[in-house]
Amino acid sequence: MCMGDQWADEAVDVMRVRRIVGNGQLRDLRSEARLSLADVGRAVGVCPSTVLRWESGSMPRWHHAVRLGALLLYLSDES
Q1: What is the pLDDT of residues 1-27, one digit of tens each?
Q2: Which positions ≥6 away from 52 have C-beta within 8 Å?
């Protein structure tokens, strides 16, 4: 895979994550997975208060959105 393809894949992931955050679905997804704010924060590399801000509609930065997207994908594969 060339770098352009990787960037395009990340862009799709980031858009998906930002749509989830914008629609207010992040809290529901986290609760369904029985994860705490701290659990998600550790997985993504941020403080629990940052996850709380995302759940309130603040958009994650690109690199955090990529990590959050990977976590959400993992959780969807587990269910």
Answers
A1: 555 677 788 898 899 999 999 999 999
A2: 37
Contacts of 7 (CB under 8 A, 6+ apart): none
Q: Do 51 and 15 contact (CB within 8 A), yes or no?
A: no
Is the separation of the CB atoms in 19 and 57 below 8 Å? no
**pTM metric for this prediction:** 0.86
Distance CA 1, CA 26 (A): 30
Residues 47, 76: Cα–Cα separation, whole Å? 23
Task: Say if CB 66 and CB 14 are below 8 A apart.
Answer: yes
